[in-house]
Design a protein that fits this description.
By secondary structure, the protein is an alpha+beta fold. The protein has two domains: about 50 residues; about 160 residues, Sandwich (Jelly Rolls), CATH 2.60.120. The chain is about 20% helix and about 40% strand. It is built from two helices and twelve strands; from the N terminus they run αββββββββββββα. The strands form two sheets. Strands 1, 2, 3, 5, 6, 7, 8, 10, 11 and 12 form a ten-stranded antiparallel β-sheet that branches. A two-stranded antiparallel ribbon has the order 4-9. A hairpin with a 5-residue loop joins strand 7 and strand 8.
Length: about 220
């Protein structure tokens, strides 16, 4: 049985913590926020708001969740003019490298979202990318997310999404992102720093002890 020395134990534990932080994360209401943007066109919000918030845009617990269309769950906005749409502003809280968009669209062509224009910003509100997505119709009766692989927008904290429909309708269930914490902003937590320091100190002590023993 191989026994790790205290120094190696500290470094190993620290590296495990770092790897856990770098694992893909599903971004939803538990770790990001969303609001209606000022760029939203004139129109009718129908059932979009619940209690004054639009959090049900991001309330799917995972990218694998099944959504069922009813008046309390879906998002429905009707623009006054063709080309009008709903603007959503996302704040991730820190910078992420986005890999996948999960989108639960409406199930029929008459009300579904036909286009989403994304603009991605870093912490300083500088644009780091743009993208247009043409989502597919949702499945029925249980709506499953369409997972759309994004061309790796990096260092993203803020996202603006402008959703439009050919019939002036914007009807969908949910949306979310899978991402990893961006490397430049991945500041180690104090506990991880402590473990790494203990590990380094342990190695130094072991090296000094070995040197003195050889003398």
């Amino acid at each position: 049985m191989k026994i790790l020395r205290p120094g190696l134990l500290g470094i190993t534990a620290g590296l495990l913590c770092f790897n856990a932080m770098a694992a893909p994360i599903y971004l939803n209401e538990s770790n990001i926020s969303v609001a209606v943007g000022a760029g939203t066109s004139a129109g009718t919000f129908n059932n979009t708001f619940s209690g004054g918030t639009i959090d049900k845009v991001i309330d799917a617990p995972s990218a694998d969740a099944t959504e069922f269309h009813n008046q309390t769950t879906h998002i429905w906005f009707t623009a006054d003019e063709v080309g009008g749409g709903l603007e959503l502003l996302f704040d991730f809280g820190l910078e992420y490298d986005i890999t996948t968009l999960s989108f639960w669209n409406y199930t029929a062509e008459s009300f579904d979202v036909d286009n989403i224009d994304f603009t991605f910003f870093n912490t300083s509100n500088d644009i780091v990318g743009t993208l247009s997505v043409l989502p597919a119709l949702g499945s029925s009766p249980g709506i499953l997310a369409e997972d759309i692989i994004l061309p790796a927008p990096l260092n993203v904290q803020y996202v603006t999404a402008f959703l439009t429909g050919d019939n002036k309708q914007v009807d969908f269930q949910n949306m979310g992102f899978t991402a990893e914490v961006s490397t430049p902003t991945s500041v180690p937590e104090p506990g991880m720093i402590g473990l790494l320091m203990i590990g380094i100190m342990g190695l130094l002590v072991n090296r000094r002890s070995s040197y003195q023993y050889r003398k």
